[in-house]
Amino acid sequence: MAAGTLEVAMSRSTAQEIAAEDFSAVVTKHRPQIFRFLLSSTRDVDLAETLTQECLLKAHRNWASFRGESSAMTWLMRIAINLQKDHWRNRRMQFWRKTQVNSVELDEASDWLPSGESSVEQQLLARERVAQVSKAVEKLSERQRTVFLLRYVEERELCEIAQMTGLSEGTVKAHLSRALTRVRAELGGKR
Amino acid sequence: MSIKDKTHGETGAEDEMTPDLELALREFRQSVHAWSEAAMNRPRLAVPPRRRLWRLAAGWALSGLLIVGGLSAGVFERHRQQVTIAQARMAEHERLAAEQRLQQARLSDEDLLAKVDVDVSQAVPSAMEPLAQLMAEDESK
Hints:
By secondary structure, chain A is mostly helical. Chain A is 72% helix and 0% strand. Chain A has two domains: 104 residues, Orthogonal Bundle (Rna Polymerase Sigma Factor, Chain: A), CATH 1.10.1740; 87 residues, Orthogonal Bundle (Arc Repressor Mutant, subunit A).
């Protein structure tokens, strides 16, 4: 009930905001997040870039029909999730195609750990932890992965994730819980 | 501020989040953010159109060469097979002709011998017949 009232209030304010915003400003603002989500999901820089471009192109074509019922970010992310789904579906159909030409090795994401001020040993441990989480995320189902990444990489609220994925909050919670259990098991199992 | 603090543990699983798990998730988030930022800011190599055109032309030329090569090899192979078949046929033909000639020669020899035999037998005078019979008997023994 409270979430519904919040949504209505949010959508009214965002509708006014969006009306005033130029599409290019929206792109400039949200493109890095869309790209980041697609990169973490596909683990392929070129593919993430292509899907980001497609997402923005699709958004541009439908910009006039965007009524601002949700935030621009939610709308864009929803398009990105659908594009990503389509991509995996197409890849499953085209099973003879070579798998991800530019896909990174499992632990490549861990190479990008910001060094900070920690010691070499701490950095190595952190890298190992990141690799373990990456491995666990890789094993998740498509839906669990999407929900997990939106929650723990994009730091989105559950209601936002529900809007982005088109799932109910309860389903989002269930997926998140299962994903977290698997990540925990991966981390626990390696120690 | 952790996700758990921020959202007051919205899911049951987040309530059970251990410091280790929270740390791992934070590091994972940081690594993805850093990776994404680096990927977005990476220098992009634009291929000049002329080079692309040259590559396209080279590709087409190579494809053409391969097709022509393949066809030539096919034609050559077919020709070689035809020559081999013709040679085999000719050899078979020659062998048959030789066999026929040999058979004919053999037959003519036998005919000649038979004729000679008949002539010789007819040429023996009747007075010598008992002697010829005796010779025949000796040969048979």
